[in-house]
Amino acid sequence: MTSDAPKTSTSDATDSVVLSARNVVKTYGGTRALKGVDFDITRGTVTTLFGENGAGKSTLMKILSGVESPTSGEIVLDGEPVVFGSTVGARDRGISIIHQELSLAPNLSVRDNVFMGRELRTPRGTVDFAEEARQTLAILTELEEEIDPLTPVSALRLGQQQIVEIARALSVNARILIMDEPTSALSASEVEILFKVIHDLTSRGVSIVYISHHLEEALQITDHAVVLRDGSITATAAARDIDLDWVVRQMVGANFDLGEPPPRSDAAEVALSVRGVSVADERNPDRFVVDGVDLDVRAGEIVCLYGLMGAGRTELLEAVAGRIPVTSGAILLKGQDVTRLSIAERIDRGLGLVPEDRQRDGLVPTMSVGRNVSLASITSFVRGRFLSGSRERALVEQSIDAVHVKTSGSSAAIGSLSGGNQQKVVIGKILATHPDVILLDEPSRGIDVGAKGEVFRLLAERAQAGLAVVYSTSEVGECLSIAHRIVVMRRGRISAEFSADINKEAIMAASGEAVAV
Amino acid sequence: MTTTTRKTAAPTTEPVRRKIDIGRLLLEGRAFFALLAVIIIFSLLSPNYLTVSNLLTMSSHVAVYALLAIGMLLVILNGGIDLSVGSTLGLSGVVAGFLMQGVRLSPFGVALFPSVWVVVVLCCVVGALIGLVNGTLVARFRVASFVATLGMLYVVRGVALLMTNGLTYNDLSGQPALGNTGFNWLGFNKLIGVPIGVLVMIVVAVVASILLTRTVFGRWLYSSGGNERAAELSGVPVKKVQVRVYVISGVCSALAGLILSSELTSAGPTAGTSYELTAIAAVVIGGAALTGGRGNVRGTLLGAFVIGFLSDGLVIIGVSAYWQTVFTGAVIVLAVLLNSVQYGRRRRSKKSAGATPPVATPPAATPPAASTP
Q1: Which pLDDT score, from 0 to 100, does residue B2 have?
Q2: Which candidate, B37, B59, B42, places its Cα nearest to that of B316?
Q3: A2 pLDDT higher than 60
Q4: For residues A11 and A189, is the Cβ–Cβ distance under 8 A?
């Protein structure tokens, strides 16, 4: 792609800075998101940007990829100051970005998505579909992903969609590839493939900028670590000189721990009992996405549900919560059969779900923080036929306080909160209904370590007060934290159950994941 | 984020914020300013415009639109649309006319002349039933609201035409001997100087406003319009809310039909044709988002007044009816444009509030018709 030959001597290549930010400042209204950042990307290396939500990572990436322009300071590409103006401008100069939120058109095929906005033409001026399909297939093969280029994106799992997103960036022969949380939806084996691709790319001279909340994973792949805190770069180091503790310390400024199981009594009654629950696949009724699952959760117990993407965790939790119907089996809440009840009735009886996708299933974007918090418990502050403003305020303030939401007030727009705080709002909403059982589907998805720790601490606290907690995760590190019991799912079935003293390798082996990750 | 906000010096943000606030005020109160502009412009153009009697006359025209628009608002808040309101209005009038002429029960050889309040109730029931069909199609059978209510637009209009064979009921005043007088009261009489139609509009608006802001149903409506999936997972009975919204819209249309036919003392099967579009326009001018979840009764009322006062004003100063259509269209487009500025900016405000000056706010205050680009 570049005119420079990628195979120059290694010392030369690693020392040459391709893209850099010089004293970049970015202000939004009165808020300074970046306070004079100097940032270098060297050829053929992976640079990881660490930092909590709101530290300014995304802002910096948006500036580097031309989505936004800096308030002051400059971007230097190959030694020359540049102004991109738009993502297209950046893309033409070989800089591509893969966003955290996927930007695919679900109604179009993989091929059409890969070439969206720069369709290949035949001499007659029509779209050269055959050539597009051929190139798409070539890239997907390189990524070791067997997807037919003609499959509509909506039919793909989230992990595969991410791969398509990467394929799209690769198809423009990017020499600088910015990846914002590329693995958040990938299974361990998909991550492995991605990392192999990243290695291939860097050996060809492509530079990668990597952002991830999976710190361990990021440390594995990166050459340089750059830590951003509160809009400034606080530390820079070569990956070989540092470890996880160092990164976390630099990020939050303190040592960090996801917690340990709170004490509990074994004699507590069973709060939730799942009996032989099966859920048929919507697209293929002969297949079961959840296949005869039995699970008892006692009051005060915290159960971690571990599994790869597609193992059936989400479907199991959604079936228990009442969002999708069960094909067979029964769900008992404190001994009462709730299998045929609506979501609302289950919430009334003390069972609530915090969904995996906050934006799609958790929040109402048009309503304020306070109204989102009070939505599920709305019937509890009715006086006569009318809502009681004072009771609602009390409930909202209490909830916001209890889950430590950082907000300028309950009337703030929900979109003004960071990911972690939005997640706390969703959790607070369910907790405000005073549940006996709370289900959380990937509660740590897309939130930073600090917020993750707070969420887990909160759950541990509630469990001690008698709440039964079931949370799912695809990060092994999260299993070995507050959970009393780890239940591993594989292909819709429970493949193993462990107590809290198990090691990561055993959990990953039970999920069918390669141990070598 | 929090820490950065705390650290930034207050003086630097102060003037910026004040400027934005004026822009915001103009933007968010645009329906109000537009109404003000309409009234001022027409008062200057015609001495007859700003008189109590004219304002009352115009208001009773507005009442019909406003009733439809309030029902429409609820549907739009839910993320749907109700195209059948104009037809329902027409059918309601026809049913009223039919009942006022007496229902002949041939097997018994008698004719029933229901009293006026029975007629009113039955018309509302008809409206509710039409809404129930709409709501069931949309909520239970997952028919797109546009298509379901478009179908009902034709079906209901067809029924109205069939009932009258295309003719108009001309005499709705009833006869004292039959005990069914009083229908004209709705359209002609006044209480404390205000036409009954306007009073009905005020009552409906107040009730709807309380429903939206003070009841569980209102909150359910806003949440299921904002994000149906999230609302459902929070225990909101989204389907029930959806059905109810269409039923309410049907009842509002039936009320509007009663008032219109009473004002005209006749009920034609084609009454209210294309009124659904006027109602949608009023809701949009009132600042509601067609994507659902945003909007309020106050805005919608203002929107109805803008449309009503504008078109009556144009009649008074003698502008051709064709130009009226052009002006109304321009106002609607401008309103949608400003809606997207308002909601688009809120979405982007985190990103670019500081980088770019507030976009396109001044035109909000200028007369809508004059500033179309």
Answers
A1: 39
A2: B42
A3: no
A4: no
Superfamily per CATH, domain A19-94+174-256: P-loop containing nucleotide triphosphate hydrolases (3.40.50.300)
**Spatial CB neighbours of A442, under 8 Å, sequence gap ≥ 6:** A314, A356, A471, A472, A473, A474
**A51-88 residue pLDDT tens:** 766 678 878 888 888 888 888 888 888 888 888 878 88
Contact B225, A366 (CB under 8 A): yes
Helix (H, G, I), strand (E, B) or coil at A324: coil
What are the backbone dihedrals phi and psi of residue B46, each rounded to the nearest 5 degrees, phi first? -140, 130
State how far Cα A439 lies from the chain centre.
18
Q: At which residue do the structure tokens 């400059």 appear? A: A74
CA distance B371 to B24: 19
Q: What is the CA radius of gyration of chain A?
A: 24
**Partner-chain residue, chosen from A29, A321, A364, that has the shortest CB–CB distance to B293:** A364
Tokens of A328: 């067979």
> What gap in Å lies between CA A43 and CA B26, rounded to an integer?
51
If residue A353 lies in a helix (H) or strand (E), which one and from where to where?
strand A351-354
Residue B271: inside a domain, yes or no?
Answer: yes
Read off the pLDDT of each residue in A370-389 and give the average, rounded to a whole number. Answer: 88
| b/e map A392-421, b = 16+ CB within 10 Å | beebbeebbebbebbbeebeebbebbbbbb
| Interchain contact, A418 vs B1, CB within 8 Å | yes
A233-291 per-position pLDDT tens digit: 888 888 888 887 788 777 765 545 677 788 877 778 899 999 999 998 877 777 888 99
The domain spans of chain A are 19-94+174-256, 102-172, 257-350+436-517, 357-434
Note whether A19-94+174-256 and A257-350+436-517 share their fold.
Answer: yes
Domain-embedded: residue B338 = no
Mean pLDDT of B59-82: 95
- Token look-up 């029931």 returns B125
Name which of A54, A365, A382 is nearest B226 (Cβ-Cβ). Answer: A365
Interval A143-198: pLDDT, tens: 777 888 898 988 887 667 877 887 888 888 788 888 887 776 677 777 887 888 88
Instruction: Tell whether B35 is covered by a domain.
Output: no
- Which of B14, B234, B240, B291 should we substitute to test contact with A (largest number of A Cβ atoms within 10 Å)? B234
Instruction: Inform me whether the C-beta atom of residue B212 falls under 8 Å from chain A C-beta atoms.
Output: no
CATH fold of the domain at A257-350+436-517: Rossmann fold (3.40.50)
Rounded Cα distance between A471 and A352, Å, is: 12
CB distance from B210 to chain A under 8 Å? yes
C-alpha distances in Å from residue B138, one per residue of A325, B146, B152, B218, B241: 21, 9, 12, 19, 11
Residues of chain B above pLDDT 90, percent: 50
DSSP A150: T
Please report residues of B whose CB lies closer than 8 A to that of A371: 219, 222-223
Q: Which of A163-172, A426-435, B177-186 has the highest mean pLDDT?
A: A426-435
Q: Report the residue from A30, A382, A418 with minimal CB separation from B5.
A: A30
CA A71 from chain center: how many Å?
Answer: 29
B348 and A CB contact within 8 Å = no
| Residue B96 in domain | yes
pLDDT, position B366? 34
Is the distance from CB of A486 to CB of A282 less than 8 angstroms? no
Domain range enclosing B146? 58-276+289-301
The sheet carrying A176-180 orders its strands as: A95-98, A176-180, A207-211, A46-50, A224-229, A232-238
pLDDT of A165 reads 82
Q: What is the pLDDT of residue B369?
A: 37
CA-to-CA dists, residue A109 to A129, A155, A266, B154, angstroms: 11, 9, 52, 37
Q: How many domains does chain B have?
A: 1
